[in-house]
Amino acid sequence: MRKIKAALALAAALFAGLAAVAAHAQTAAPAQAEGYPTRPVTIIVPFAPGGSTDVLARVLANKLTKAWGQQVVVDNRTGAGGNVGANAVAKASPDGYTLGMGSIGTHAVNASLYASMPYDTVKDFAPITLVAEVGLLLVVHPSVPVNSVEELIAYAKANPGKLNYASGGNGASQHLAMELFKNMTGTEMAHIPYKGSGNAIGDLVGGQVQIMFGDMPLVLPYVQQGRLRALAFAGTKRSRAAPDIPTVDEAGVKGYAASAWYGLFAPAGTPAPIVDKVNAAVVKALAEPDTADFLMKQGAEAVGNTPAQFTAFQKREMDKWGKLIKVIGLRNE
């Protein structure tokens, strides 16, 4: 009888201990999020300074620094179409102090484009929110003797391979937008990939390359200055930032549509309360009038959604662009 009572007492003690551990686990994560952040936070940008990914990350970094009272810094890590920087996020400690600004390239396209990937696009990340969708503007250097999409198609067909088009890298939104255009119009242009769209646009303005589907926030100022010529907007409807510019569809390439998007990610395993806290802060920042107005004037639409909504969006994008890549036969080793 004594042995039975002793066993029961031991079992009760063990149960109480386990219950205490469980209770602690339930309260530890919220408590961890409540105090977060207690030190500087880094947002890794997988492209060079000056591109849309970088610009959006810096806008958020400034907003979050003010909101949290902790410095939020941007760290540009370029290479392999964004894979180097994205991999750094995937391999970082999942504590909320390393985040990543991903793009359509790093988090939708590259999984289908590259024969070998250093990270799993889905399993290695915790999506936080879709930050913004950025319109793409089809622009040419003034030396190109065309003033419309129709003239561009005719010129490209009469001069196959003569035009060089720029992009922010293999698999970047600018790259796929032009490949889709080529596929739908039967034209041929040579691809010149850069380490980030900022560098690509610099050479486009300088005349080293002739044409590009450029991120609206980056190319529109050059169009307004007369240093680039805009032919069409790649979205499904005209941009509020440049309502006089027709869509590619309106300009004659029926059914054409392409855009760029950028979202914030954390490493997989980051506690949900921290993901939720970052999400709330970013969504609030994007909804502030000065942020939304700044982005809208440059052709970017602030979004800000839930982690679940962003996850579903990312899956749809991976499916869509994966099919296109297969159809046109793109592949990077």
UniProtKB/TrEMBL annotation:
Signal peptide: 1-25
Keyword Acetylation assigned: no
Presence of keyword Nucleus: no
InterPro entries: BUG, Bug_dom1
Superkingdom in the source lineage: Bacteria
Stored SUPFAM superfamilies: Periplasmic binding protein-like II
Gene3D superfamilies, A to Z: Bordetella uptake gene, domain 1 (3.40.190.150), Periplasmic binding protein-like II (3.40.190.10)
One Pfam family, short name: TctC
Keywords: Signal
Family that this chain belongs to: Belongs to the UPF0065 (bug) family.
Protein name: Tripartite tricarboxylate transporter substrate binding protein
Organism, as annotated: Xanthobacter tagetidis
